[in-house]
Amino acid sequence: MRVALFITCFNDTLFPDTGKALVTVLERLGHVVDFPAAQTCCGQAHINTGYRRDAVPLMRRFVDVFAGAEAVVAPSASCAGTIRDLYPALANETGDASLAAAVRETGARTWEFTEFLVRRLGVTDVGAYFPHRVTYHPTCHSLRVLRVGDAPERLLRAVRGLDYVPLPQGDECCGFGGTFAVKNADTSVAMLGDKLRAVQATKAEVCVAADNSCLMHIGGALHRQRAGIRIAHIAQVLASTESERLA
Amino acid sequence: MTGIGTRPGRPLPRFEALAPARLDDAQLRRNLGKATATIRGKRQTVVDELPHWEALREEGRAAKAAVLAELDVRLEQLEARVRAAGGQVHWAPTAADATRIVGDIAARHAAREVIKVKSITTDEIRLNEALAARGIVATETDLAELIIQLAGEPSSHILVPAIHKNRSEIRELFVARLGQGDLTDEPRALAGAARRHLRAKFLSVPMAVSGANFAVAETGAVCVVESEGNGRMCLTLPRVLVTVMGIEKVVASWDDLGTMLQLLPRSSTGERMNPYTSIWTGVTPGDGPEEFHLVLLDNGRTQVLADSVGRQALQCIRCSACLNVCPVYERTGGHAYASVYPGPIGAILTPQLLGVEQADSLPYASTLCGACYDVCPVKINIPEVLVHLRGRAVERQAAGAGTHPYPRLERLAMRLAAWAFGSTTRYTLATRVARVALRLLGGGGAVTRLPGYGARWTAVRDLPPPPAQSFRDWWDART
Ligand code: SF4
After folding, report:
1. Of the residues A175, B200, B219, B320, which has the fewest C-beta atoms closer than 10 A?
2. Are residues B285 and B430 in the same domain?
3. What is the model's pTM?
């Protein structure tokens, strides 16, 4: 299959290794990856902060850029969720019926990486090797907007050498919430504290998730506290093999 | 004393300003963590018993949405049925109208004292204060409401108003305020003390004021659901009963009431059925109150109804399941919302009732984690409404209204980002500048200190060292 990669502005800028890993996994499975160069940002932060009108041109751009793609895959549950869950209402507000139709149609072809592997491609064993103790934080938007279910856990359990430890109270929010982390910094930190305790209780070496934004929040505090636990996007674990460790 | 935040024309204090003191209150954090975890567990158990729970939720949503779509007709039907059954109906467009109506009824009966149950709607209109101004003392009879009334504090939870207090704090309060010296902090002893205090009131006070959970348009029946039986005493013993009900509480039919009574107890207290369900229709000679008044309160609700996205907030049956699962509420408690309606439902209802510019921090008091939407028995898409109201808050801020501390700066930053992301060239340049800036700030390593608002991030978190190459650069070099 030809897969169009939506890297997301955040991963493009700060976490390019995640994008490389995603390409590695899909190519290993025999698929062709395209990277439409005109893509920029989905406008999630604008919509979620209330700047809806500023996000409209970004939405139009997204729909145009990915018009012909068979499948659009993103290494971010919250960006994929923006396309599928937030765009339809925003498109309706513009009163442009053809845009609204295009948004719905693009949304139906847009996937978060782990759900794409498990649901669309029907793969759980991607041929990865990762001999580490790993816990997984199911991000809110992967769970409750995209409903990826246990897709990420199934992928991790199929990785050779990987010692998977479920995260206690995993489905509770880590407190990131985009601009919430700065607008409500105190509450965000209170939520983060409980998440860190849960992560540390697993005695994992690596905490993975399907969103680098929540991971940057969790990992930023783990690093500050010198907790000795590193973070990695799930794509990087799935891309790792005996010959190359990518997480 | 109760009802903060509903004074017309005065904006609420911002959530992020009130939250830190609550987050620092160790007793509060422990009480709340324990109480919400217990209720969450109980709810899950009784919900899992019902294989058709999702279908039931959909039924509840559809029933509420349908009645809201023809609210005028249903309310007139309710009014006619209540009148036909010997009750009196009053329309109260505003809080002031409602408190005047209730005060006038009390004055007509020369009541110096009233007893109350199901008080959240009367908290919204600050009824106790209004009655006090006319020399009428209102006594709350729900145990938790009584506790916070004695403490002089507002409610912090819809269903468990004193959720922020534990039993030793309650004992101290009863000793001080009810003069019951030899009290232990055993729940049985505390309930006994409250009972002794309240029983005397039930037998002597001539008038009761209640809220309502539901009213049935097709029959004129009004329904109150409770756990203690004190409500039933209020609803049956005094000569005069006045029920103050938000206009959105009407349901079309007895069948719809049946749906609601399956959804509400499981969602709120985690019970299959609550202990006391009182349903009455008008007055019955020789049985219960001799006079029944139904006050139908608007107080901003028709304005909510006009918003096609926001109106789903009026489907709410006040079960408080969304509070109990909310990770923000669980840590800050209800008082940080400065509103009669706290938690996720408060964050979408209060700004709509007051005008979004009066409470424009509340839609932001959420990470949009979606836990509330999953448990809501009438399927209110709370995250959707939160995002929608953020949009309306920004519109009001652009017009110079609202309480945002730096609206112009935020608007500029958002505009700039949208402009930069509008072209590939600008995007590439902007993200490169960001990486270079982070490299300079971090000296090549992790960034431990950001300037300006970024400092709120780096107060407790590092940022990873920015990569030398973006994904885009890597891709271009690869092909
Ligand atoms: S919004 Fe839903 S979950 Fe929250 S109190 Fe209302 S009915 Fe219950």
Report:
1. B200
2. no
3. 0.96
